[in-house]
Amino acid sequence: MGNKLIVATRNPDKLIELRRILEAGRVPVDVGDLSEFPDLPEIAETGLTFTENALIKARAVAAFTGLPAVADDSGLCADALNGMPGVLSARWSGRHGDDGANLQLVLGQLADVPVEHRGAQFACAAALVLPSGAEHVTEGLLGGTLTTAPRGTNGFGYDPIFVPEGAQLTTAEMSPADKDKISHRGRAFRALAPIIAALLGS
Ligand code: IMP
Q1: To the nearest 10°, the Cα dihedral for 15, 20, 22, 24?
Q2: Is the peptide bond before 85 cis (omega within 30 degrees of 0)?
Q3: 3-state percent breakdown (helix, strand, coil) of the chain, nearest 5
Q4: Burial of 12 (0-12, 13-18, 19+ CB in 10 A)
Q5: Total domains in the fold of the chain
Q6: What is the CATH number of the domain that holds 187?
Q7: Distance of CA 75 from the midpoint of ligand 1 (Å)
């Protein structure tokens, strides 16, 4: 195994996704997550952009662990809401992580918005921070439209109301593998993989 890298998450799915992308890119790094650091304090996501929040998390983890760290931040940006919920996606209805309430609030806010104005993007920034202080950020976008009612039970968050450009299914009706191929997070992580390889892969 190569150098160690920590992904700033306690979500096992994100760890698996990053490992899969780095393996596909033949990047020889050993990826761990925050379950190895139970004493790491909660990191407040106080940035106004996905990039700022990804950097805040990656800097905090690199400083605490002394290891290279990757963090991502993502959300839904609706055209008719001027790009919101944006960085507030996880707490749009007031309570952090209440996916059902967040989705229903967006549907309510867009109730009178016609189909041609229901465009939206999933956006993700992925940051790599090294203990030396070096920083790299990549971004991934997935464009689409918002439905008028939820469809599908896969995925999380706003997946039941998001149909990617060129697709008929919502991302909650797609298989996880099909969503991974096009997702904003997959795109941001895949763009980061060669940078990780160049800096840590030997
Ligand atoms: P975080 O980047 O893990 O903080 O996620 C932010 C929030 O954005 C999530 O709680 C979801 O509400 C939303 N979000 C981010 N990515 C996706 C996705 O792939 N599908 C659905 N919702 C997402």
Answers
A1: 180
A2: yes
A3: 40, 25, 35
A4: exposed
A5: 1
A6: 3.90.950.10
A7: 5
What pLDDT digit, counting tens, does each position of 157-175 carry? 999 999 999 999 999 999 9
- The answer to whether 87 and 73 have CB atoms below 8 angstroms apart is yes
- From 45, 72, 76, 95, mutation site for ligand 1 pocket: most ligand atoms within 8 A of C-beta: 76
From the alpha carbon of 159, which atom of ligand 1 is closest?
A: 21
If you measure from the C-alpha of residue 1 to the centroid of ligand 1, how many angstroms do you get, rounded to a whole number?
Answer: 31
pTM of the model: 0.94
Q: Which residue lies with its CA nearest to atom 5 of ligand 1? A: 74
Boundaries of domain holding 145: 4-200
User: Nearest C-alpha to atom 23 of ligand 1 is from which residue?
Assistant: 157
Calculate how far, in angstroms, residue 14's C-alpha sits from the geometric centre of ligand 1: 11
Helix (H) / strand (E) element for 59: namely: helix 50-65
